[in-house]
């Protein structure tokens, strides 16, 4: 459980940090993009359509723009290819935005930090291709993946050809690349034009101010049937003419071209020949605008030559066709703030005078469920946010003030031009109730392992916290062998015996103890100990020290016996028969243990324990020359005493050596 709680906490922290990184307070969520509100078209006054080439009409774009920082851009794309022509000059919308048209549409750039706004952009355009009759031409406008389509109604352009016309110049308006397009119609009446010394052939074009000719844009097309049956100009020209196109590009300068030839017999070809003098040409080219501030652009086409009359003298002809293009000018626009504000107050539910700081709220777009901004209440308990784009939102508390429970109440927030400020009043929180930590108890009984009825007191245990390895408590068994502890905080512990009861061995067994809300009482039952084994009596290896034997008395030196006289033959004694019944034998004394000899008399008793029976009639035999036997008795006693002492001493040494 503890591991799960740790991962849960780590997950919450990561989610919080991610939400803070992706939705910083007071900034538009990255998913908030500009959108197209609508696109419309308007035609010249009183018209329901626009004539190709001739008319200028307007496209209107309504853009919902979110907050933008200075320099931030967005691009509106017009479906390609299209035949729309418009001025590429950059124009401003107030102090906040700038619009730069290009070949594919236009770019809107913020000139300063802006709030969410509805931006209106108007772009004057021409339709630069002819149509047949009246056609409905679709146009698709795209912004950030969003697309809106509209229909443009275009009328066919018709130009009646005057019978005296030699040349004619017509402006076509702005091309997609921002240049002005012009067309020169040459000899649509298919006259046989030549040059003479008196009246040389001249063909020239003069480009007006604030523009210059783009030489490589000159394209010439031959027109086989320049006039249609109804007398209008055939604008469906034939194929590209390399000879005429190369010739004019060679003659051209930035300000136009001028070709003069007194012997003119047709325009020269790349192969050295000439084109027919009756050729009709559709010549189109572009001029580059050099001053975006100008609104009127002019050009003039001129030609002269001689034509042969019907059997009469040659006739001089000339044509001069000035042309001008009144630009509808740069685009224009307007912007309107489409933002509102939100405010509320955070307070204690029991006492509204207690204002709560640090509460965090997420303002989410109701449609996308994406977080638009995060709002944190200040020291006065006030949460507020300005410059919120119009729309429907939901306010939800994401972090409660310290010491309070988070509220699960959500608040709708709808901002519009009719409801630009929303005040939610007081939003209250309940205090967090005191946290009661789970505690538990532990009990066990200390018993003899051989006889569990014997309860053991005085055993000492330690209860160690597994997480910290700190000893939480020491438990000692009582007179009944019971060890118990209450109010143990939730956690994992280990119970270990540190001192055994008297007379018992210390147990090395440990016991796991888990305290939790689900397990508050732990009973380990019987915890046994084994008695200490009995030790055998130690033998007394130190023998008793025998008493020192008394030093025997030195017998007196016997007197030198006198020289006996000549012995006489002794009388033989009478032998008196003795009955066996008169002989008494003394029963020897049996000793289970020989005590150390303590005296000379004792030594004699130990060595000689037999004495003559009192009932035996004993008479010594006479010895030759013996006058007295007392000295021999003393000497013999001394010998016996010395022998006994020696024997005792040897036994003592032997016993000592054994130990």
TrEMBL record:
Q: Where is the composition biased (Basic and acidic residues)?
A: 523-538
Q: Looking at the Swiss-Prot or TrEMBL record, what is one Pfam family this protein matches?
A: SpaA
Sorted alphabetically, which InterPro entries does this protein's record hold?
Adhesion_dom_sf, Collagen-bd_dom, Ig-like_fold, LPXTG_anchor, SpaA_PFL_dom_1
What Gene3D superfamilies would the database entry show? 2.60.40.740, Immunoglobulins (2.60.40.10)
Q: Where is the composition biased (Low complexity)?
A: 539-569
Q: Which UniProt keywords apply?
A: Cell wall, Membrane, Peptidoglycan-anchor, Secreted, Signal, Transmembrane, Transmembrane helix
Tell me where it resides.
Secreted, Cell wall
Q: Which residues form the signal peptide?
A: 1-21
Tell me which domain of life the UniProt entry assigns to the organism this sequence originates from.
Answer: Bacteria
Coarsely, its chief localization is: secreted
GO MF terms held by the record? collagen binding
Coiled-coil positions are none
Q: Could you tell me where the Polar residues compositional bias lies?
A: 318-337
Q: Give the membrane topology, semicolon-separated if more than one.
A: Peptidoglycan-anchor
Residue ranges occupied by any Gram-positive cocci surface proteins LPxTG domain in the UniProt entry: 621-659
Q: Return the annotated region ranges for Disordered.
A: 313-337, 520-574
| Protein transport found in the keyword field | no
Q: Which family does it belong to?
A: Belongs to the serine-aspartate repeat-containing protein (SDr) family.
- The name this protein goes by in its record: LPXTG cell wall anchor domain-containing protein
